[in-house]
């Protein structure tokens, strides 16, 4: 059932309050999904509400904030992937002195560099063989051309499936985002960072401490609530069921006019049947309070685990339907190539990357900025 609108929003103007398309943010730093004019108009006719969008001045403010952030994000993307970059720097060295007679040796070394950076064997072979064909057929004639072709093929791999990287928050209030994944991947930290971003964009965010396995888990989330200035719902008693805590939180979100409820969950192994079933109960409990919710189920994958993350993601996706991935700890590893592997193998969009432990260290994923960051 959809939540009712606050009275101040019930008289939305007949003309949508969207800025002209040219002024709408287009960068992947855009966190929120902007509905089309037509979509928006029908939503306002139905007196429905998408987060805070609809309040006069909201889009102007959001646009400004996103623009400012997009600028600092690009700088951060470049520093965040420093290890992957170091690792792939060999590509530049190889291509600087490349000449045709050296092609096979250079491509062997390029293949090795891509494998070490976790591009995965299938993608690596695909990229290298296509470069080899283009070099021997005379299409690529210099190191610079080879590098440009390499970057283009990585970008194509990331964008070919047309996966959307922005958050899809629907039209009902509150929008609900559930964070799932195996133990220690960075769920709670990513949730905290996400809360910070959404809060800074003018949305009213409620945190839900759905990790009821460990007593310390809700304390950890409370610290994030304080740090980000968000309210939080925690279990009232010990051994509470996660589904009931999350359902209460979403109810409160609905009653008290929150825009977004961010639900933390316990870490669990994808092979543990009963724990995976518990996740299904959590999802159902949320959907009973707000139909269509959770709007996003974001799975956190630890970038340092390399390609082992693929079976985890497959299993979570089969059980609960993952709508996006957050790849964490890419600052600490030389394995940034795993981003390309997961997108190619799973067909699920990477929506954010974690590049540190700080509150600002979660970046919306942008394929072009990513390729520029790892192959500067
Ligand atoms: N370097 C780095 N560390 C991170 C990142 N994200 C999370 N961490 C660290 O990883 C550790 C685990 O993070 P948590 O957020 O507690 O992970 P979790 O998935 O919630 O863990 P459980 O609730 O126990 O399953 C913490 O020390 C975090 O600070 C990241 O992007 N980069
Ligand atoms: Mg946690």
From TrEMBL:
<dbReference type="InterPro" id="IPR036225">
    <property type="entry name" value="SRP/SRP_N"/>
</dbReference>
<dbReference type="GO" id="GO:0003924">
    <property type="term" value="F:GTPase activity"/>
</dbReference>
<dbReference type="GO" id="GO:0005525">
    <property type="term" value="F:GTP binding"/>
</dbReference>
<dbReference type="GO" id="GO:0016020">
    <property type="term" value="C:membrane"/>
</dbReference>
<dbReference type="GO" id="GO:0006614">
    <property type="term" value="P:SRP-dependent cotranslational protein targeting to membrane"/>
</dbReference>
<comment type="similarity">
    <text>Belongs to the GTP-binding SRP family.</text>
</comment>
<dbReference type="Pfam" id="PF02881">
    <property type="entry name" value="SRP54_N"/>
</dbReference>
<dbReference type="Pfam" id="PF00448">
    <property type="entry name" value="SRP54"/>
</dbReference>
<feature type="region of interest" description="Disordered">
    <location>
        <begin position="1"/>
        <end position="26"/>
    </location>
</feature>
<protein>
    <submittedName>
        <fullName>Signal recognition particle receptor protein</fullName>
    </submittedName>
</protein>
<dbReference type="InterPro" id="IPR003593">
    <property type="entry name" value="AAA+_ATPase"/>
</dbReference>
<dbReference type="InterPro" id="IPR000897">
    <property type="entry name" value="SRP54_GTPase_dom"/>
</dbReference>
<keyword id="KW-0472">Membrane</keyword>
<dbReference type="InterPro" id="IPR042101">
    <property type="entry name" value="SRP54_N_sf"/>
</dbReference>
<keyword id="KW-0342">GTP-binding</keyword>
<keyword id="KW-0675">Receptor</keyword>
<dbReference type="GO" id="GO:0005047">
    <property type="term" value="F:signal recognition particle binding"/>
</dbReference>
<dbReference type="InterPro" id="IPR013822">
    <property type="entry name" value="Signal_recog_particl_SRP54_hlx"/>
</dbReference>
<keyword id="KW-0547">Nucleotide-binding</keyword>
<dbReference type="InterPro" id="IPR027417">
    <property type="entry name" value="P-loop_NTPase"/>
</dbReference>
<feature type="domain" description="SRP54-type proteins GTP-binding">
    <location>
        <begin position="349"/>
        <end position="362"/>
    </location>
</feature>
<dbReference type="GO" id="GO:0005737">
    <property type="term" value="C:cytoplasm"/>
</dbReference>
<dbReference type="InterPro" id="IPR004390">
    <property type="entry name" value="SR_rcpt_FtsY"/>
</dbReference>
<feature type="compositionally biased region" description="Low complexity">
    <location>
        <begin position="1"/>
        <end position="15"/>
    </location>
</feature>
């Amino acid at each position: 059932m959809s939540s009712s609108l606050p009275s101040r929003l019930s008289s939305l103007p007949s003309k949508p309050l969207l800025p002209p398309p040219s002024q709408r943010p287009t960068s992947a730093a855009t966190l929120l999904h902007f509905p089309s004019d037509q979509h928006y108009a029908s939503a306002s006719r139905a007196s429905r509400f998408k987060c805070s969008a609809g309040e006069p001045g909201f889009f102007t403010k959001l646009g400004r904030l996103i623009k400012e952030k997009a600028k600092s994000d690009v700088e951060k993307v470049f520093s965040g992937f420093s290890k992957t970059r170091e690792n792939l720097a060999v590509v530049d060295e190889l291509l600087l002195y490349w000449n045709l007679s050296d092609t096979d040796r250079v491509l062997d070394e390029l293949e090795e560099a891509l494998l070490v950076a976790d591009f995965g064997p299938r993608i690596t072979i695909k990229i290298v063989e296509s470069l080899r064909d283009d070099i021997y057929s005379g299409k690529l004639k210099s190191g610079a051309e080879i590098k440009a072709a390499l970057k283009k093929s990585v970008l194509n791999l990331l964008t070919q499936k047309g996966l959307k990287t922005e958050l899809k928050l629907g039209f009902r209030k509150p929008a609900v985002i559930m964070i799932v994944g195996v133990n220690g991947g960075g769920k709670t930290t990513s949730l905290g960072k996400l809360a910070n971003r959404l809060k800074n964009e003018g949305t009213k965010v409620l945190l839900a401490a759905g990790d009821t396995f460990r007593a310390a888990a809700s304390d950890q989330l409370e610290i994030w609530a304080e740090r980000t200035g968000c309210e939080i719902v925690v279990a009232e008693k010990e051994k509470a069921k996660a589904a009931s805590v999350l359902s209460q939180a979403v109810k409160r979100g609905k009653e008290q006019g929150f825009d977004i409820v961010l639900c933390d969950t316990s870490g669990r192994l994808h092979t543990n049947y009963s724990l995976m079933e518990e996740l299904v109960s959590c999802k159902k409990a949320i959907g009973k309070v707000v139909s269509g919710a959770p709007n996003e189920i974001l799975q956190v994958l630890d970038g340092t685990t390399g390609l082992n993350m693929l079976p985890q993601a497959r299993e979570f996706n089969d059980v609960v339907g993952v709508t996006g991935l957050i790849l964490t700890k890419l600052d600490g590893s030389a394995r940034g190539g795993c981003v390309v592997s997961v997108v190619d193998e799973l067909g699920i969009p990477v929506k954010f990357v974690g590049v540190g432990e700080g509150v600002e260290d979660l970046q919306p994923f942008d394929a072009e900025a990513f390729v520029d960051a790892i192959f500067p």
